[in-house]
Write a structure and sequence with these properties.
Layout: H1 3-11, H2 18-21, E1 27-31, H3 41-50, E2 55-59, E3 74-78, H4 85-89, E4 94-97, H5 104-108, H6 112-120, E5 124-126, E6 140-141, H7 145-158, H8 161-171, H9 176-191
Parallel strand pairs: 1-2, 1-4, 2-3, 4-5, 5-6
């Protein structure tokens, strides 16, 4: 994970791209793989009907059309260049990871997106992922549809600069450079 790249979302001022600038707030932002088996479309549909003023902003590659794309507050903006991710994230109000939790990929995979979201400093609301359970508090882990709404409402109402700083510090040392240095040191130790 490139910490500095994603941290630039809140470290500088960004002009909003036209496709997100036209959307009202609050914006729940997601970037990453967009698959019918990965995104919890029932969750998004439920929240969209209960909070129609919340705008879901989805960006990434997708293989098939999503059922939720016809909802008036769900906006698929397509795939964006990696270099533009901080610019878009700067205009999210909350970063979300609304993944289904009942398949092996999600259960055993590593959602690098959560680390990228944390690096932005933006509030993060996710469905339960084993890897991030120890970070509950820095990441808001929603345990049901209504709890997802509650967690987003909390993120919108109670986020502070100190919360942003804590999120960023929690993963600042989780970069590829730091990881490579750790592996290099382990190899040197083994070779001695």
């Amino acid at each position: 994970m490139d910490f500095d790249h994603f941290a630039s979302a809140t470290a500088r001022e960004w002009t909003a791209p036209d496709d997100i600038a036209r959307l009202p707030r609050p914006r729940l932002g997601y970037f990453g793989a967009i698959e019918t088996w990965l995104l919890d479309q029932q969750l998004i549909r439920y929240i969209s009907s209960h909070r129609p003023d919340w705008q879901w902003v989805l960006m990434g590659l997708k293989a098939a059309r999503l059922d939720i794309e016809d909802l008036p507050n769900v906006h698929y903006l397509g795939s964006k260049p990696y270099s533009e991710m901080p610019r878009y994230a700067a205009h999210f109000d909350v970063c979300v990871l609304p993944w289904v939790t009942d398949n092996e990929f999600v259960s055993y995979g590593s959602a690098i997106k959560v680390r990228e979201y944390l690096a932005t400093g933006k509030p993060v609301v996710i469905t339960p992922l084993y890897e991030y359970e120890p970070m509950d508090g820095l990441v808001r882990i929603a345990r049901g549809y209504d709890d997802f709404i509650t967690k987003v409402e909390d993120a919108l109402a109670r986020d502070t600069d100190s919360n942003r700083y804590a999120r960023q510090q929690s993963i600042k040392e989780a970069t590829w450079d730091v990881r490579a240095e750790e592996v290099s040191n382990d190899i040197e130790t083994l070779l001695r």
